[in-house]
Design brief:
It comes from Photinus pyralis (Common eastern firefly). One of its GO terms (molecular function) is catalytic activity. The protein has 312 residues and is an alpha/beta fold. The strands form 4 sheets. Strands 7-4-1-8-11-12-13-14 form an 8-stranded mixed sheet, with helices on both faces. The longest helix is centred in the last third of the chain and has 21 residues. The radius of gyration is 21 Å and the shape is globular. It has one domain: Rossmann fold (3-Layer(aba) Sandwich), CATH 3.40.50.10300. The structure holds ligand PAZ. The site of ligand PAZ has 13 residues, from helix 3 and strand 11.
């Protein structure tokens, strides 16, 4: 009998641009594998659960993509190659610093004379220049690949395709699963084709459990990689127990637990042996430090230990 996750793939079609993305993933991984680089797959943002095949309405998952986008920048600073698998239109590395009208407010339009020029306002140069330099460095060195998903089904297909390409990196591959993935969905076969009509009365929507992909991911797809998952809770009293359940069940290396309201300044690292907190002080926050800087530094250290322990 097929397992729950196998059945999911056999009953849900890949996204329309799947083959293009698979090619990009393959090319990116092959290029960096040749030079023996460390590579991280970051998943970021929330998945949707469509209510109709021609989707007008969907159930969404909470996540702005801040954790994933900020972490991508820090992994690049630690010389990792980055696959940034993220929800379409969620926050991205580098551009995340200029949301809304902010970027336009930093520009000056000079339309005197024969030609129009646009410049960065002198007092904004110190803000834009270092971010632009890091962006160009990552972009021009081909060190980051952006791949997008929207629905939970898109995410599943792309996650497996990325893992297939990452397997060759063995222990040099790090998976940093920060996306907020739906736990419930409507199977394709039970979804109406067209927009649900209100004249038929309030619909009764029955959701089913999504398969847990951590099991095949850890055991079959990337068995030699360093796998880190995140766990979000709203009830502090169950956070560590849930994180520990996850690590005991899936046997990966690390679960990073966080509480919705405090996730910007406190997380807890749960390993098979211990748990410890990573916290940002008020002063550090006021000085513009981000918790992802410390999270990534800790994860990189643990990944390095993991690699060196394999060599002895
Ligand atoms: O994207 P964001 O910065 O607003 O939030 C990050 C997060 C809370 C989604 C992430 O840290 C996380 O916990 N992801 C896993 C969520 C889950 O338990 O499925």
């Amino acid at each position: 009998m097929a397992s729950h996750w196998e059945e999911f793939y056999s009953t849900h079609l890949p996204p329309t641009d799947f083959e293009d993305n698979r090619k990009l993933l393959k090319e990116f991984c092959e290029r960096h594998h040749k030079t023996n680089q460390r590579i991280v797959l970051i998943t970021s943002g929330g998945t949707t659960v469509p209510l109709e095949h021609n989707t007008v309405r969907f159930v969404d998952n909470f996540s702005a993509g801040t954790r994933g986008a900020a972490s991508a920048e820090y992994f690049l600073e630690h010389d990792y190659m980055v696959i940034f698998l993220h929800r379409l239109k969620s926050l991205e590395p580098f551009t995340r610093h200029f949301t809304g009208q902010m970027f336009l407010d930093m520009l000056e339009l000079n339309d005197r004379g024969p030609s129009t020029t646009i410049t960065v306002k002198p007092d904004c140069v110190d803000i834009v220049a270092p971010i632009l330099a890091r962006y160009k460095n990552a972009q021009e060195g081909g060190r980051i690949l952006y791949v997008t998903f929207t629905s939970v089904s898109d995410y599943f297909w792309l996650l497996r395709a990325a893992c297939e390409c990452l397997a060759a990196f063995q222990s040099n591959a790090l998976l940093y699963l920060a996306a907020a993935v739906s736990d419930f969905y409507i199977p394709s076969s039970e979804m109406p084709t067209h927009k649900i009509q209100s004249q038929n009365g309030a619909p009764t929507i029955s959701l089913q459990l999504v398969p847990k992909l951590l099991a095949p991911l850890v055991n079959l797809w990337v068995p030699h990689a360093y796998v880190v998952s995140f766990k979000l809770e709203t009830d502090e009293s169950i956070l560590i127990a849930k994180a520990r359940d996850s690590i005991n069940k899936y046997k990966h290396k690390l679960v990073i637990g966080n509480i919705l309201q405090s996730r910007r300044y406190r997380v807890v690292f749960v390993t098979p042996q211990s748990n410890y907190e990573v916290v940002l002080t008020r002063d550090q926050m006021l000085n513009g430090m981000e918790i992802e800087d410390s999270i990534v530094a800790n994860v990189v250290d643990s990944h390095s230990d993991f690699i060196s322990n394999l060599q002895y």
